[in-house]
Every structure is written in C-alpha cells, then in structure tokens.
Amino acid sequence: MIDLPVAWANYISMGIFIFLGGLVWIVPKKAILAGQPETDRWRDLRIWAMVLIGLQLTIYWIFS
Amino acid sequence: MHPLDLAVIISYLALITFVGIKLSSKVKNAHDFFLAGRSLTWWVIGLSIIGTNIDTNSYVGASGNAYNVGIAQANFEWIGAIPAMIIASLIFIPLYWRAGVYSIPEYLGLRYNQGVRVVAALIASVFAVFALGVAMWALALTLETYLGWPIWVGILVSGTVVGLYSIAGGLAAVAITDSIQVSIMFLCGIIIVGIGISDAGGFSAFATTLTQDNPTHLQAYLPADDEGFPWPGVILGLGFVLSPAYWIGSQAILQRTLGARTQWDASASMMFAALAKTFIPLLVVFPGILALVMKADIDYPDMALPWVIKNVLPPGISGLMFVAIIAALQSSIDSGVNSTSLMITRDIRHVLMKNHNPANDLKVGRYLTLILLLSSMCIAPFIGDLGGIFTFLQTILSLFQGPMLALLLLGAMTQRATPMAGLWTLVTGVLVSAILLIMLEWNLLYVAFVSFCYSMVTLWTVSGFTEKLSDEKLATLTYRPWSRT
Predict the structure, then answer these.
(1) What are phi and psi of B12, to 5 degrees?
(2) CA dihedral A55, A12, A26, B104 (to 10 degrees)
C-alpha cells in the first residue's frame, strides 16, 4: 500500500465517499425526519448528505 | 492601527457582550444553562459547531502549514471531518438526543458504567483547563501583536467579555454569539479570496504562479514517506479514527446539538456544519497559499496570515479580519468553559458526591464557569513554561481516542457490548496506545488506528462472555431505526 502513487490516495478518498453515499440511503426516512412533515422534501438529510458527498468528490478529483 | 479598524473591533466587542447579556434573562435552571432549554435551531447550532471547532491553531497554524505543504493541509477539513460529520448527523446525534443526556460521558455511563463516565469526563476536563489557558494566551498575544496591549490587559479584557456572556447566558448565549462570530469569519474569508485572486490576475494565473515553484501545493495528499502527513496515515489515522472520535465524542462540539429544539434540528445542524466545514479551507488554508503566491517577506510560516491581513486587506476590512481571529478564539473559549463546567457539575459531581442536590446545578455550573475562566486566565501567562505539560496532556488525550471511539461505535451500533467489556477495553486500549506511542515511538496517526482496531476486537470478544444490559435499557441506548419504522 505504501508503494502506491499519491494519486491513489485521492481515488481511495473518492471511494470512501461513494461507499458512504450508498450507506446513507440505508437509514430509513422516518428515522431522519423524526416527526417532521414528510411533504417537506428539503428536510430529508440524505439529500443534504448527497450534496456534501458530491462536493467532496469534486474536490478530490480537482486536487488529484 | 487605522481608526476605522479600531471602531470595527470596539463595535464587535460591544455587540457580543450585549447579545450575550440580553439572553441571560431566559436562564432559569441548569437545563436552560447547559442545554439552552432545548430551544436552539439547526442553523444556529451548525454555525456554533464551526465556531467551536476553529481555534487559533486553525487560523494561524493552518495558514502556516498551508504555506509549507499547500492544499494537503485542507484534509483536516475534508476527509478528516466530512465522513465523520455525516455519520454523526444521521446516527449518533439522534441517538444522544433521544436518550435525553446532557453529555457524552453521561451516555457512556448509561451504556457501560459510571466508572467509564467519570474517567471520560475527568480526562476531558483536565485537558480542557490547559487548552483554555492556551487559547487565552493566544488571544492575549493576538491583542498584543495588533493593538499593542500588554499581555495581562489582553487576558483581563478577553476573560471579562467571554465571562460576561457565558456565565450569564449559558449555552444559548454561547451558541448565538458563536453564530455571529462565524458569520464574520466567513465574510472575511470570502473577501480575502476575492482580493487575493483578483490581485494575482485570476484563478488560472494564481494557480500557475503557485505551482511554478511549488509543484505539489495543489495536490490533496503528500507521499507515503512524508514525516508529518503521510497519506496512508491521514486516511487511516485521521479519517477512520481521530476524526470520528472527535465528531461523535467531543462534548464541546456535541453539547449544542443536545440543546436542539427537535431531533431533526440536532441532526440537520451537523449536516449544515459539514457544509460550512467544506469551505473552511478558504478561511484557514487560502491565506497561507496567498502569502506564498504574493512572495511574502516573512521569517517563518506562521507569519503568513498576519502578513496577508497587513498587506492585502484595506482599512476596515483588516479590522474585521482581526475581529474574526478574536472571534475564533472567543468561540473556542466560551464553548470550552461551558462544556467543562457541565462535565464537572454532572458527570463528576453527580457520581462522586452521593448527597449532591440537583437543584443546585445552575449555581454550581455558573461558579464553575467562573472558576474555569479565572484558572485559564491565571495559567495563560505561564503557558510558555507549561508547554511540556500541555504536550504531555495532549499525548495522554490521544491515548484515549482509539478505545473511546470503539466504545462509542460498538456501544451505539450493537447490543453486544457489555459494561465490563467496556471498562476492560478502555483500560487495556490505553495501555496498548501508550506502548505504541511512547515505547515504540510510532507516528500518532498509526497509533490511533492500531489502538482502535485492538479495542474493537477486545470489546467484541470480551462482550461475548460478560453480562449485557437489559433489553429495555438497550432499546433507548442503541441505534435501531428499523425497529421503530
């Protein structure tokens, strides 16, 4: 692993974020909304997490 | 100093003090003082989390490091924070909030036993007193550098301002003043980026100038054989252990989420903080890189930020940037005194003093806040001489990170972890860390990862043949969203 080129660190980071992006959707919507109205789609924090993960993927792609 | 800068600084100090004291009328009991009466909204908490997280080291130290290593410094804000913050937001914060606890040691006490609770609170409290002294010293040093105030005047003024609003208004005052302070920090960060890139002739010209002499400064990672930040160590140690241990276990960070008005607000606050955290490098990393691009004439890297403030920013804005640095320090101090006061009041006093009166929690909490503040003011002038002790305490604290993370992870995510296994893992995990760090002299990042792996295996194994908590208790203390849907 130590012999891998530095660029692999970026690929591993991006892999971690993609894996996390998948895990986020395992959490049930009801557990996230916790009593908030289900019609307010913006309150679904899984979508917030996707925005964050998208930003991180862009960052590690740019600075690779 | 330009009169406009001075006017900005005085206006800021007056505003913060006024807001803090104004909120004091809402504090009627310990629940209001320590958890803001569970009234905080997500965006206030989110900004407050960032205010607590950014300290002098972030501002001056990170800019200095960025001057040396470039964008790799930003890993502390990205891979070293965001994954853990997302997990904290979706899993741990809802769990803590529903459990109705005041602190993370209190959760550990309920999930494992009171011994674990006291040890966790004690270590965090002792470290906090010295960390507060360092922060107070840095604040006074900043005031001396920019305003020419003697150190003791800086300590006295800073301590008085922070004391006024944090003792009177408790967590609500701390969180709301933090959110004002972070807004100022971001405003200044955006201005520095705008002026810096404009002066360099646009982003392309900026990047070209930077990479001409420093080809690796726009690379996110440094080679595996780098002494300070080897990339495997950054991903495994920082990303997998130190960062989760901080974002799911730090009382100063998580206390404001426990003061949220709803469980959703608590979770959303951390997600919002993560969004803000993504852009923190603009505040703390960019100035260091800018100083390099502008070929700053500085003696050592930590002078990068002061150079940028003095040479790049116009009058008024440089005063505002100075305010941002004071704000970063103040928000760390106010959060530190409030959370430490809570841990001593409840996690140590409630357990060790069997005849305590919970009705006195507010009074005790306020006295402790004052004592902690005065202690940090007394320690601050001698912090240079105490540097060895502080480094020693930092080392001691780092020994607990791996085992503590294992306790929180398996404690929250499984029903398997038992009280006896928790105590056993904490004690032996710290020993393993100490051997690796002190006797074998491993890099701290690798120590964190190995001690965490050891603790996970030990906790899992020992739990197999020791008695677990009742199903009734485990129902509220473990994460089981599927059973509620």
Answers:
(1) -65, -50
(2) -80
| B482 contacts in chain A (CB < 8 Å) | 28
Instruction: Tell me the pLDDT band of B44, cut-offs 50, 70 and 90.
Output: very high
All domains in chain B, ordered by first residue: 3-385 (1.20.1730.10), 388-485 (no CATH)
- Substitution target in A3, A11, A12 with the highest count of B β-carbons within 10 Å is A12
Rounded Cα distance, B135 and B333, in Å: 7
Query: Is residue A19 a part of any domain in this protein?
Result: yes
Q: Which domain holds residue A21?
A: 7-62
When scoring B216, B217, B264, B479 by the number of chain A Cβ atoms within 10 A, the one with the most, hence best to mutate, is B264
Residues whose CB is less than 8 angstroms from the CB of residue B161 and which lie 6 or more positions away in sequence, other chains included: B13, B16, B17, B330
Residues 6+ apart with CB under 8 A from B177: B16, B19, B20, B165, B330, B331, B334
Residue-wise pLDDT for A5-58, tens only, equals 888 999 999 999 999 999 999 999 888 888 777 777 889 999 999 999 999 999
How many CA atoms within 13 Å lie on the side-chain side of B376?
37
Q: Between chains, do A63 and B94 touch, taking CB under 8 Å as contact?
A: no
Kindly indicate whether the ipTM for this predicted assembly is greater than 0.90, answering yes or no. Answer: yes
Residues 6 or more apart whose Cβ sits within 8 Å of residue B335: B48, B51, B52, B174, B178, B252, B255, B256
Pair B299, B76: CB distance under 8 Å: no
Number of folded domains in chain A?
A: 1
**What is the spatial distance between Cα A45 and Cα B90, in angstroms, rounded to a whole number?**
8
Residue with tokens 């409290």: B125
Is the Cβ–Cβ distance between B382 and B73 less than 8 Å?
Answer: no
Cα distances (Å, whole numbers) of residue B449 to A4, B237, B243: 19, 5, 11
* Residue A2 lies inside a defined structural domain of this protein: no
* Residue B253 near residue B160 (C-beta atoms within 8 A): no
- Say whether residue B80 is in contact with chain A using an 8 A CB cutoff: no
Q: B424, B208, B85: which is closest to A49 by C-alpha? A: B85
